[in-house]
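Contributing new records

If you add data, match the layout below exactly. Sequence lines come first and carry their own label; structure lines follow with theirs. Keep one chain per record. Anything else will be rejected by the validation script.
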Amino acid sequence: MGKKMFHLAPLSLYDAGIEINRYGNIYMSWLTTFVRPKINALMHKREIPDNLWDQCTHCEQMIFHRDLVAHQHVCHHCGHHMRIPLTLRFETLFDDGRFLRVPVPPVPVDPLHFKDSKKYTDRLKAARAATGEDDALVVVEGHMGGHPVVIAAFDFAFIGGSMGAAVGEGLVRGAQRACELKAAYIVLPASGGARMQEGIFSLMQMPRSVIAIEQVKEAGLPYITLLTNPTMGGVAASFAMLGDIAIAEPGALIGFTGARVLQETIRQALPAGFQEAEFQFSHGMVDMVTPRSELRQKLIDILGMLLPGNREQ
């Protein structure tokens, strides 16, 4: 029997590893079938997204991003509480993850025309582009276990969560909104302290925030502070330590001045971890240290005692 003949095949067969000789015979080429795909694989490596994994900032273990979100940005290897995006924070605290933004009145930008290594206005532009927020404080309202709640939370990614005029204005507006709604006022600081680029305008926010908190207390409404890492400087020296109940996240750094500066000033050795939440709790500076996964239920229990008749049915 003669060789089986076929009609001339289209050129695209070559890409599939099939070749045709001059007599019209079809045969498979080892070079195109095996070698060529391996070369293509080497030349065109599959791109892997760079956001699949995160690294714990404490134990340096790698964590699958989906697991990190599921655990509210708490490392499941060592329990370290990393910084959590504000939107995710709010969604895990409020009923059904629903909340509304509370508008904050604008304040003058760069009142001192400050410039160090770069202009303050340039720093603000960069921080706004990176975070999508106007400043370091976000004020929201919603319900927690049916109880009306106003939360003012700091974003450390915005110039270290530093407190300037806009933050002070936000704290005041949050207190006013809590009084209007007869709601609990919860503040979540995550800040290095006052914003040096605003000088005296920044320091003025310390007494302003204290007065706003006193108005909430005079209205008979709960004021709760949830101290996160870090709570330092002028923030710790004002509204952050005035909560009717002060809750801290595990490992949160809480204090006024950094350990190195303190040790150099008093010229004495300081206890290890003396500014961490657990040490502060053991010395009566905070009322409890609560893991992030238990915060929502803990706050609901507290609100049930402090606002027993102010619950949405």
